[in-house]
Amino acid sequence: MTYRPWLPHYDPSVPHDIDVPQGILPELLASATRLFPDAPAILFYGRTITYAELDMLASRFAAALIKAGVQQGDRIVLVLPNVPQVIICYYGALRAGAVVVLTNPLFEAGSLVRQVEDAQATTIIALSMFYPLVEQVRARVNLERVIFTNLKEYLPSAQRQLFTLLRQEREGHRVPDEQARHSHSYPPKPDCQCHTDRSLDSRGKARSRTNSLRAAVLTRLWHDCVYEPQRDPLRSNDFVANL
């Protein structure tokens, strides 16, 4: 067996080998929604988004992407920090059959251009505050669509109003009016459900599906070992995968 030098550094209750469930990441979200629909999935500055809400938002975004022309296997670059939209867009893109390309929102234009070109991406999703950066990329790369979202979208109502009054203009959290007037809206049906059985990496390799599932399972096991040590971390194993 290959020596794995990191194993001695695991906490005593963390298993060295785990079971990786068959399936894809969107199925994990759907499963969590069925089991814990009212449990908090995202906490953001006092705003709580439940698993049921997250599942609905991801499905609606998937429907909007499909209506906007996104095809199965298209690469979508997310230029988003740790905000609710990055989770909604991530799962929504997977459900639309697209390939998610996560990038560093602190990249300069040159670095972002190289990643977009390397991934052969057709779409960028970014915060409105990154509009100048995205425009530099658009000038050098042929993109089919660019989607902007505002940092304030999922803030609690009172904070969202204060953000609009005190920060939006001063910090550049908006797309110029001229550009916004030429944009298109693709409102999905509220009850639309979109699922996909493909999850690829930026080069189209399906193994990212397994790697992502491993990461998700490891995170859950770590959570149980730290916060619920009385539970059996291997209670749901079906087969063993060496990590």
Précis, in short:
By secondary structure, the protein is of the alpha/beta class.
Features:
243 residues; disordered C terminus; alpha/beta; four-stranded parallel sheet; two-stranded antiparallel sheet; Rossmann fold; 8 strands
Structure description:
With 243 residues, the protein is an alpha/beta fold. The protein has one domain: Rossmann fold (3-Layer(aba) Sandwich), CATH 3.40.50. It contains nine helices and eight strands. The strands form three sheets. It has a four-stranded parallel β-sheet, with helices on one face. It starts with 16 loop residues before the first strand and ends with a strand.
Q: Helical stretch count?
A: 9
Structural class of the secondary elements? alpha/beta
End-to-end C-alpha gap: 12 Å
Report the count of strand segments: 8
Blueprint of the fold:
Layout: E1 17-18, H1 25-35, E2 40-44, E3 47-50, H2 51-67, E4 75-79, H3 84-95, E5 99-102, H4 109-119, E6 123-127, H5 131-138, E7 145-149, H6 157-166, H7 168-171, H8 177-181, H9 207-227, E8 241-242
Parallel strand pairs: 4-5, 4-6, 6-7
Antiparallel strand pairs: 1-8, 2-3
Helix pairs in contact: 1-2, 2-3, 4-5
